[in-house]
Design a protein that fits this description.
The two termini are about 15 Å apart. The longest helix has about 35 residues. About 50% of the residues are buried. By secondary structure, this protein is mostly helical.
């Protein structure tokens, strides 16, 4: 009996190791010849490595562009410090390492979510769901760009789904120190009654800012006093790939909206969604509650590129537990990638017809539909978890318990 339980615990971990090793090996094998001379894809990883290298060389962090991609480092100073270990690596090796870590984080997130939903998953099922999640556009885009979103998502999920841990909140604070948007989850924790966890998150975030100010004061001053308020520094906000309220308004108005208009719409909307998520969280569905918090974060951010929407994975798993059709429909949106169906790029979004704005803002509309459904469901039942038995949370694997 004890041996069987131990094997059930080892299975998901073994699946994560196998999947990440295979993916990393495939990336290294495929990319080695090209990476010896050019960067090609993985442009964000190139910028991360460039940021770490600038610090190692004692150069200005925000005053130049990565020569391989012509992009600037736009994250907080603490993020650049975290990238210093990547600086000396050959790019092909950094690519393999980063891809393995990202796929491992994806598999880890699936395990964390499944257990929070009351499901003990086999290693085979974890591997199957991880491979299946690669079909979602935000996930494969995250991998091909070499983005950090899957790693941050796992850190946030651990703290939000298991806040009883003694040091819960620390990972969330560190994630916010790397990328500011996770601070939305602090609001969710406060509304959900987890003020101690929220406090630890804020302290950890303040610690990351202090580390930046102490170790690279010039870069920290530039970021916190200048770069922070330049939302357009990361790319054209009207681009179809910017699936946020700010991007939607920009495309609807055919020009960048006034800041006050954006705040008047995005602020109350995000707060309302976080409040709905907090109610779900308090009533026992921490996965859906956290997913709603993530939706608020992505909608409120001035720039939420499509690969930021990796939160589609845990939200899809939460919806699958409640309504299979809703889970399938949600997943289909993120597999189909509708926002590129209309013409895009070179400000062609400003010429969209009214009907083209529907697929062109698909992720935003999906998040709004999810939020409305979640709010309506709260008025229909006092216990959201009563709809479906927890044992039916995920599709059963061959060795999963009935």
């Amino acid at each position: 009996m004890r041996q069987s339980r131990a094997l059930s615990e080892v299975g998901p971990v073994l699946a994560v190791v196998v999947v990440t090793a295979v993916v990393a090996g495939a990336v290294a094998w495929a990319e080695l010849p090209a990476r010896l001379s050019v960067h090609g894809e993985f442009v964000d990883l190139s910028v991360y490595q460039y940021g770490g290298r600038r610090l190692v060389d004692g150069l200005s962090l925000y005053g130049a562009r990565d020569p391989a991609t012509n992009l600037r480092f736009t994250y907080p100073p603490f993020a650049a410090l975290a990238m210093v270990p990547l600086a000396p690596l050959p790019f092909w090796l950094a690519t393999a390492f980063w891809t393995a870590a990202s796929v491992g984080a994806l598999a880890g997130a699936i395990v964390v979510v499944a257990r929070a939903l009351g499901r003990t998953v086999s290693g085979r099922l974890v591997a199957l769901l991880t491979v299946g999640a690669l079909a979602l556009e935000p996930v494969w885009q995250n991998l091909t760009f070499g983005q950090i979103n899957l790693l941050l998502m796992l850190a946030v999920l651990i703290d939000l789904l298991y806040p009883e841990r003694r040091w819960s909140g620390i990972l969330l604070g560190i994630a916010a120190g790397v990328k500011l948007t996770p601070l939305v989850f602090v609001v969710l924790l406060v509304l959900a009654g987890r003020r101690a966890t929220a406090g630890r998150a804020l302290l950890a975030f303040a610690g990351t800012a202090a580390i930046g100010l102490l170790l690279i004061p010039g870069a920290a001053k530039t970021y916190w006093t200048h770069n922070l308020i330049k939302a357009g520094r990361v790319g054209p906000p009207e681009l179809a790939h910017n699936q946020s309220v700010f991007g939607t308004i920009t495309r609807l108005l055919d020009h960048i909206p006034p800041t006050l208009l954006w705040l008047a719409i995005a602020g109350p909307l995000a707060l309302a969604i976080v409040a709905v998520g907090a109610v779900w969280w308090r009533r026992g569905d921490r996965v859906l509650g956290t997913g709603l918090g993530a939706s608020a974060m992505l909608l409120a951010s001035p720039v939420s590129w499509s690969h930021h929407w990796v939160w589609a994975v845990p939200i899809g798993l939460a919806l699958w537990q409640r309504n299979r059709w809703a889970g399938v429909a949600w997943t289909a949106v993120f597999v189909a990638r509708p926002f590129v169906w209309p013409p895009w790029g070179d400000t062609r979004e400003f010429k969209w017809s009214p009907i083209e704005h529907v697929p062109g803002n698909a992720y935003v509309l999906a998040a709004l539909a999810l939020s409305i459904w979640a709010a309506v469901e709260l008025t229909r039942r006092s216990d959201p978890l009563a709809e479906r038995p927890r044992a039916e949370a995920l599709p059963a694997g061959p060795s999963s318990p009935a």
